TrEMBL record:
Enzyme class at the top of the EC tree: transferase
The protein, known as: Aspartate carbamoyltransferase
SUPFAM superfamilies, per database record: Aspartate/ornithine carbamoyltransferase (SSF53671)
Keyword Zinc-finger: no
Annotated InterPro entries: Asp/Orn_carbamoyltranf_P-bd, Asp/Orn_carbamoylTrfase, Asp/Orn_carbamoylTrfase_sf, Asp_carbamoyltransf, Asp_carbamoyltransf_Asp/Orn-bd
Residues noted as binding carbamoyl phosphate in the record, renumbered to the chain: 54-55, 104, 132, 135, 260-261
NCBIfam families: asp_carb_tr (TIGR00670), PRK00856.1 (NF002032)
Sequence intervals crossing the membrane: none
Known function: Reversibly catalyzes the transfer of the carbamoyl group from carbamoyl phosphate (CP) to the N(epsilon) atom of ornithine (ORN) to produce L-citrulline. Catalyzes the condensation of carbamoyl phosphate and aspartate to form carbamoyl aspartate and inorganic phosphate, the committed step in the de novo pyrimidine nucleotide biosynthesis pathway.
E.C. number: 2.1.3.2
UniProt: L-aspartate binding residues: 82, 165, 219
Lineage: Bacteria, Pseudomonadati, Pseudomonadota, Alphaproteobacteria, Sphingomonadales
Aspartate/ornithine carbamoyltransferase Asp/Orn-binding domain mapped to chain residues: 152-298
Length: 310
């Protein structure tokens, strides 16, 4: 079996293949009856060691729409709270003969550790500040559907880059697909190795926004701060928040994106987030279900005796 632990290492054709696979599920999800039973008899476990609304629910809905039996494990209500180790938890999930396991964890690398201990495909639903591959795939699907193609686009990723697994996965994904990815944020929230992930670090927000086709704003992740100096919320909005004046620097038809959850009025002004023409934020959530259906289908093909992906 093969896992989906990150975008790093995926070939452009593999990313395009997953995006193409998701299109059929976008169509199905817009019909009154949203059911396909190709995962009937399979058990999907969603093990979430960190909070989530979009990722957890969309994996649950994706599994159910494909006919799988879906079980959710919330770490806060599990034996993790009694001190059970991550590896013992993985071995326990494995013994229940899951056919796919989706994991979110607060530590970078934790999902890889679990993947090494289980006998089924593992999908990374976000590990620490490392990767969030299905988010990058759903973002790429959203951009491809709204802009027609990804190659040649200028994408600005702005905000708390340091703590963002979404920024990492998106830099790798969009640059692999041929986009120019410009990255900007407060100096204390810029990671050192942006170029190695396919991004171009910018000295100012204005430089990143200049002529952008897509503006992706990121959440200020207050829960992950470790003493970094960051501006106050008012200063942050002034310097790095997406306002009308700053959005005017991007192309007139620039698409506005945010993975959610948003800090409205800090990294993005509410009326921009809610502008149905400019903002693709609700599209991103819709694409998330279709993209996760595609990932679950493709990764369990070998198990189902269907021609596999790798
Ligand atoms: N975008 C995202 O991962 O959102 P959740 O934390 O709600 O899953």
């Amino acid at each position: 079996h093969r896992h989906l632990l990150g975008i790093a290492g995926l070939q452009p054709w593999e990313i395009e293949f997953l995006l193409d696979e998701a299109e059929q599920w976008v169509d199905l999800n817009r019909q009154a009856s949203k059911h396909d039973d190709r995962l009937a008899g399979l058990t999907l476990i969603n093990a979430f060691f960190e909070n989530s609304t979009r990722t957890l629910l969309s994996f649950e809905i994706a599994g159910k729409r494909l006919g799988a039996d879906v079980v959710n494990m919330h770490a806060a209500q599990s034996s993790v709270k009694k001190g059970e180790t991550l590896i013992d938890t993985a071995v326990t999930l494995n013994s229940m003969r899951a056919d796919a396991i989706v994991i979110r964890h607060g530590s970078s690398g934790a999902v890889q550790l679990i993947a090494d201990k289980v006998g089924c495909p593992v999908l990374n639903a976000g590990d620490g500040t490392h990767e969030h591959p299905t988010q990058a795939l759903l973002d790429a699907l959203t951009i491809r559907r709204r802009k027609g193609q990804i190659a040649g686009l200028r994408v600005a990723i702005c905000g708390d880059i340091l703590h963002s697994r979404v920024a990492r996965s998106n830099m790798i994904c969009l640059s692999t697909l041929g986009a120019e990815v410009r990255v900007a944020g407060p100096p204390a929230l810029m990671p050192p190795a942006v170029e190695s992930m396919g991004g171009t670090p910018c000295r100012s927000f204005a430089e990143a926004l200049d002529g952008a086709d897509v503006v992706m704003m990121l959440r200020l992740q207050n829960e992950r701060m470790q003493g970094q100096f960051i501006p106050s919320p008012r200063e942050f909005r002034h310097l790095y928040g997406l306002t009308d004046a700053k959005l005017a620097l991007a192309k007139p038809d620039a698409l506005v994106m945010h993975p959610g959850p948003m800090n409205r009025g800090i990294e993005i002004d509410s009326h921009i987030a809610d502008n149905a023409e400019r903002s693709a934020i609700t599209d991103q959530v819709e694409m998330g279900v279709a993209m996760r259906m595609a990932c679950l289908d493709v990764l369990t093909r070998r198990r189902r005796g269907v021609e596999g992906w790798a």
